[in-house]
């Protein structure tokens, strides 16, 4: 009897290991969940429809996830078609046995898309007048990249979402006298770009995956290591900016005499408190 249970145990173990390996590397093709996935996805926004040929289910034993990979996915936004190279849905195995939200994260990738596809997406939530202007700004170019969209256990959007990608051969019309031609640029984490140059931008805010330099300067962003490395203002020597009027200004550190001269330049007839008498 003992040998029987031992053989049964070994057989079950081999079956489980073999199934895990097969599901991890090869997956299972199925169309049983196609209608359900399309229905749930299309409920998010009435102007957005998700289309794909079939699904392939893989097992991710490291994260204890089921990966539902949609084959030949594309999104229809107000009738405009955007082809995707990948759309993977990561389902938490734990959620099948609890009340947690089923979807853990979504990974969306696209290759060789027209840069004007951006305006097809913004057409969902921006007024037509503004979106029309965006369409003029993005004249031409190619766009490729990857979105990672995490979800919390209650179904809300997670904080650590991000985008990385590349714009190539792009023409961008920011103003009549300020046009960018043949632009090729990586869209990624700034410190990943700076690392080969032995440089590092210290402020590490929780939203670093989608924060931009202009916003961090405006907010004087910091981060958990600001006590050691300082805030954004501590890493700026000077700023060369262009106002909405087209006026160019240079912001940098000035001494008391230079500040007094600047004040007198804009208000020469007004009396000012001497800089030396100011107490902060």
Overall description:
With 280 residues, this protein is α+β, with helices and mostly antiparallel strands. The protein is built from eight helices and 13 strands. The protein has helices at 2-25, 34-42, 117-122, 128-137, 190-194, 213-219, 226-229, 256-266; strands at residues 28-30, 48-51, 55-60, 65-70, 74-77, 80-83, 86-92, 103-114, 138-150, 162-175, 178-187, 238-242, 248-252. Strands 1-3-4-7-8-9-10-11 form an eight-stranded antiparallel sheet. A three-stranded antiparallel sheet has the order 2-5-6. A hairpin with a 2-residue loop joins strand 10 and strand 11.
Question: How is this fold's topology laid out?
Answer:
Elements lengths: L1 H24 L2 E3 L3 H9 L5 E4 L3 E6 L4 E6 L3 E4 L2 E4 L2 E7 L10 E12 L2 H6 L5 H10 E13 L11 E14 L2 E10 L2 H5 L18 H7 L6 H4 L8 E5 L5 E5 L3 H11 L14
Question: Which properties best describe this structure?
Answer:
8-stranded antiparallel sheet, 8 helices, 3-stranded antiparallel sheet, 280 residues, alpha+beta
């Amino acid at each position: 009897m003992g040998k029987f249970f031992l053989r049964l145990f070994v057989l079950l173990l081999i079956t489980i290991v073999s199934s895990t390996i097969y599901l991890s590397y090869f997956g299972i093709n199925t169309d049983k969940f196609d209608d359900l996935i399309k229905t749930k996805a299309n409920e998010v926004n009435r102007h957005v429809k998700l289309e794909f040929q079939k699904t392939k289910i893989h097992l991710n034993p490291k994260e204890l996830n089921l990966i539902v990979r949609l084959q030949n996915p594309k999104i229809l936004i107000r009738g405009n078609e955007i082809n995707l190279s990948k759309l993977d849905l990561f389902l938490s195995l734990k959620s099948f046995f609890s009340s947690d939200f089923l979807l853990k994260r979504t990974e969306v990738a696209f290759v060789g898309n027209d840069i004007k596809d951006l305006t097809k997406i913004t057409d969902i939530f921006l007024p037509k007048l503004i979106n029309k202007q965006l369409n003029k700004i993005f004249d031409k170019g190619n766009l490729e990249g990857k979105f990672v969209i995490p979800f919390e256990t209650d179904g809300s959007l997670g904080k650590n979402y991000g985008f990385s990608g590349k714009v190539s051969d792009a023409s961008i019309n920011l103003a009549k006298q300020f046009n960018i031609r043949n632009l090729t640029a990586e869209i990624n984490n700034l410190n990943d770009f700076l690392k080969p140059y032995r440089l590092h931008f210290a402020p590490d805010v929780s939203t670093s995956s989608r924060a931009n330099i202009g916003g961090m300067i405006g907010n004087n962003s910091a981060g958990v290591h600001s006590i050691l490395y300082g805030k954004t203002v501590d890493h700026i020597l000077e700023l060369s900016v262009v106002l909405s009027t087209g006026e160019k200004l240079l912001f940098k550190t000035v001494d008391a005499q230079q500040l007094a001269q600047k004040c007198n330049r804009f208000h020469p007839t007004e009396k000012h408190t001497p800089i030396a008498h100011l107490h902060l």
